Amino acid sequence: MLSEITIAAITAITPSAKLNPTFEIVTLAALVLVLVADLILAYRRPHVPSTRESALWVGLYVGLALVFALLMLILGDAEHAGQFIAGWVTEYSLSIDNLFVFVIIMTRFSVPRKYQQEVLMVGIVIALVLRGIFILLGAQLIENFSWIFYIFGAFLIYTAVRQAFQSHDDMEDTESGVIRFLRKRIPISNQFEGGKLCTVVDGKKMFTPILVVFIAIGTTDLIFALDSIPAIFGITTDPFLVFTANIFALMGLRQLYFLLGDLIDKLEYLHYGIAFILVFIGVKLVFHALHENELPFINGGHGVAWAPEISTWTSLGVIIGSMAVATAASLIKIRVDARRPSRG
């Protein structure tokens, strides 16, 4: 039984036949090593990175993603490269949105800025594990139930509506109910002890607030994983591309947090751009489901001829265009607000 599960898991992350298996194995091994090295660095050198340091790291990770896309183009084809870039940009957009909630959590629990690197790294590891699980589950569902695209599409459209009309503060208020529940049932101190989970107060062993922060971030990661995996499966159904796009999107997220700083909370229209992307991919998934339809109560179980198949390059253009417009609009608003005279 165990061997069957292992084989199924390996099969689920096996790339398409056009890619060299050695390239895939080396890629996965290298990405895991980079993430482990980043985790060790965050714990051994807890500090507030400068803008220059953060920019260099973010630039490095973005450069690695682009190099990987180039290798995909050389070793695979333009379709593979395009699917990776579109998936990576989508996941990166959703990861940036995730940072908004991280900012709220850090602020609410007054996490010392020196230790925010450690907290962010734990959040990234949790996100990676959760997304890995959902990728395996999603790949199995797609392989066995083609109609799952209807559900994925509807879920993304629902998520987009929620994204457009629900503030991040509303999400944090929902999470605070879980936090209140924990505080009533387990002893939690009021002071941080570096990155330690436990401390001793008046001879009594207690958890530090860092535990609550980890749980809040883990809850956030779960919510975003539920959103992001259907979104990228709308771009590519190749689990290898899905997995690598997610890893590259999460790499450098810790440094991006410090690079953007207070600006991230001022990108007012960014969530509208992300919502538009989710609606677009949701509609694309529904069209794909209609095109490949097997449900007997829809068109007699046959594919719907008028349902278009949206190309990878069209998807990439819409995704990049949406983020560019939303970011530019947010920056323009920041500049306009800065020029307005303050009211006394």
Commentary on this structure:
Mean pLDDT is 78; it is low at 1-17. By secondary structure, the protein is mainly alpha-helical. The chain has one domain (2-338). Helix 4 (78-108) runs parallel beside helix 12 and helix 5 runs parallel beside helix 8 (209-233). It is globular and about 70 Å long. The chain has helices at 2-12, 21-44, 51-75, 78-108, 116-144, 148-165, 168-185, 209-233, 239-250, 253-260, 270-291, 312-339; strands spanning 198-201, 204-207. Strands 1-2 form a two-stranded antiparallel ribbon.
Task: Provide key terms for this protein.
344 residues, single chain, disordered N terminus, globular
How are the SSEs ordered, and which strands pair?
Blueprint: H1 2-12, H2 21-44, H3 51-75, H4 78-108, H5 116-144, H6 148-165, H7 168-185, E1 198-201, E2 204-207, H8 209-233, H9 239-250, H10 253-260, H11 270-291, H12 312-339
Antiparallel strand pairs: 1-2
Helix pairs in contact: 2-5, 2-9, 3-4, 3-10, 4-7, 4-8, 4-9, 4-11, 4-12, 5-8, 5-9, 6-11, 7-8, 11-12
Our estimate of the beta-strand percent is: under 5%
- Number of discrete helical segments: 12
Question: Helix content range of the residues, please?
Answer: over 70%
N-to-C order of helices and strands: HHHHHHHEEHHHHH
**In oligomeric terms, what are we looking at?**
single chain
Give the C-alpha Rg. 21 Å
- Sketch the major β-sheet: 2 strands, antiparallel
Number of strands: 2
Low-confidence stretches are: 1-17
Q: Strands of the largest sheet, in order across it?
A: 1-2
Distance between the termini: 71 Å
Protein structure class:
mainly alpha
Categorize the overall geometry: globular
Mean pLDDT comes to: 78
